Amino acid sequence: MSDLRELYQEIIIDHGRHPRNFGAMENATASQEGFNPLCGDKIFLHILEKNGVVVEIRFEGSGCAISMASASLLTEFLKGKTRAEVETIFQAFHALVTQGETHAEQQLGKLAVFRGVCEFPARVKCATLVWHTLRAALAGDSHPVSSEQD
């Protein structure tokens, strides 16, 4: 199990230091800001959606390794997903990081690297900030998202 934990840590560190899909998007159909006042994470999420499918997704911002890795992996994983699929994945991810639920781990693919976050309640907000920001963006909410939700 320690080898698996080390692999998970390596993936989070890699995505935290070298985030994928990082940068602005000029043709976004939805954008949203999220902020974690506990540790200073700040995310600007940009989504290009066509016919209910996430075609492109990018982010800007700064924060801890967990928040940056979560945003990076989210942007990789959700491209090509429908709104319904995004919501299902959100629910599975949220259950994984808040309760350690692993029943949907196969559905989460690489996102399962965040399994250990539930052992550190203060870090849950870091991992879920971009997810709450995503939901607000898709809902058309114009208010910045705060990680106070979890």
The domain count comes to: 1
The count of DSSP E runs of length 2 or more, i.e. the number of strands, is 4
Percentage of residues in DSSP E strands:
15-25%
Classify the secondary structure makeup into a structural class: alpha+beta
Give the helix tally.
5
Structural write-up:
The structure is a single chain. The protein is an alpha+beta fold and 150 residues long. The chain has one domain (2-141): Sufe protein. Chain: A. The chain contains five helices and four strands. Strands 3-2-1-4 form a four-stranded mixed beta sheet, covered by helices on one side. A hairpin with a 4-residue loop joins strand 1 and strand 2 (41-50). Helix 1 packs across helix 2. The longest helix is centred in the C-terminal third of the chain and has 19 residues, at 121-139. The model has no long low-confidence stretch (mean pLDDT 91).
Summarize the model shown.
The protein is α+β, with helices and mostly antiparallel strands.
List the helices and strands and how they pair.
Blueprint (H helix, E strand, L loop, with lengths): L1 H16 L12 E7 L4 E10 L2 E10 L2 H14 L4 H17 L5 H4 L12 H19 L5 E2 L4
Parallel strand pairs: 1-4
Antiparallel strand pairs: 1-2, 2-3
Helix pairs in contact: 1-2, 2-5, 3-5
